[in-house]
Amino acid sequence: MTAVGATAPAAALRRPAVYPGQPFVGFTFDYLVIGGGFSLLVLALLASGTMPSASVFLKEHLWTFVLLSNSAHFAGSTVRLYTRPGSFRDLPFLTMGLPLVSLVVLALGLVFPGALGQNLLSLYLTWSPYHYSAQAYGIAVLYCYRSGAPWDEKEKRWLRLACFAPFLYSFLTIPGAGLTWLMPAAALADPAAAAVRGFAATAAMVASFAAPLALFVRHQVSGRARLPLISLLAVLANAVWLVLLSYQVAMVLAVITIFHGLQYLAILTIVHVKEQMKRPGNGAPAWRHAAGFYARCLGLGYLLFQVWPHAFVLAGFSYGESLLLVVSVINIHHFIVDAFIWRLRRDPSYAAAAASGGSGGDAVRHPPAQAASADSFRASG
How confident is the model at residue 153 (pLDDT cuts 50, 70, 90)? Predict the structure, then answer.
């Protein structure tokens, strides 16, 4: 056999120089929805001002989009928790204790808005960027393993640092949350402290974009297990959301939450459908499982965010105060639930989703045990 003939099969199996990753549904859907590409297109369109009608349409229907995406995504973790077999047995506090604790904390926050309510809101605003960054990290790792590129712990630590740089920036800069919540205003106003804080924020801002890009280029040059392009996109999209857009402007913040919710719902629905399709006696098509799961998430999301605050209004509290605290408590509950349910090691359904090939090409398949040794896809942390 000639040298050319010997190397031909290897060349045929070799990945492209920039590996796009193995999609779940298809490259278009995965890159636009799960990777966050569509969010960047919409945000660029809004920032450019080239289509004022699109901005007006979004403003007029903003809360409908928030309900369809973000409210449903918060409910999704709860629906997943209570529909997963064995949840009450395996997670008794999460399924029975945490809801009661959340109700008590919410009631106390309404009764003592100054002492507790404001701190709940600050905790939510502090934790939320961490939640976003953890989701970006989880998506990046999930596509790495799905694409046949398992990493060692050292490499994952570097990726984790790159993903959480936007959280550090948010922690240092968000008014009323993060550092400004935990530290006295007088201490932060000190010139030396302000200078250190400003330097750290600038470093975190630069690292939010430079670190994932450097990691991607390093893998390309070294020829080691490559970071798929869709993983890089998810990490950079999160950096745009939290750093370039500062996670503060109300309109932009609402748009970001919509796309964050779409990311989460997409992965959660894929896992749910794969699990249902493998059950003995299943006769329903995949789309019916997906539609049914989303309908439950949407219904619960409507009750939580649209109906529940009005119950406290009937009890004599203001609607604005009730809504803010309900949103804060639901978010915190969501973060805690996610920290338990989004772990490949604890649920073989997630491992199977990471290991199985999609419809977009030749997947490198791993047995669930190997995929389970991967880092967890944690949408909250």
Answer: confident
Q: What is the mean pLDDT of residues 35-51?
A: 87
Q: Which domain holds residue 129?
A: 3-372
| Joined tokens for residue 334 | 């969501």
Burial of 278 (0-12, 13-18, 19+ CB in 10 A): exposed
HSE on the CB side for 152, CA within 13 Å? Answer: 2
Buried b (16+ CB within 10 A) or exposed e, 162-196: bbbbbbbbbbbbbeebbbbbeeeeeeeeeeeeeee
Angle at 209 between CA 208 and CA 213, to 5 degrees: 125
| CA angle, residues 272, 276, 279, in degrees to nearest 5 | 145
pTM for this model (two decimals): 0.84
Q: What is the pLDDT of residue 250?
A: 63
User: CA-to-CA distance for 71 and 73, rounded, in angstroms?
Assistant: 5
Residue 276 CB contacts under 8 Å (≥ 6 apart), including other chains? 282, 284, 289
Residue 377 forms part of a structural domain: no
Residue 55 lies in a domain: yes
Please tell me the total count of domains within the chain.
1
Q: What's the DSSP call for residue 193?
A: H
Three-state SS string across 113-149, please?
HHHHHHHHHHHHHHHHHHHHHHHHHHHHHHHHHHCCC
- How large is the average pLDDT for residues 290-294? 95
pLDDT above 90: residue 211:
yes
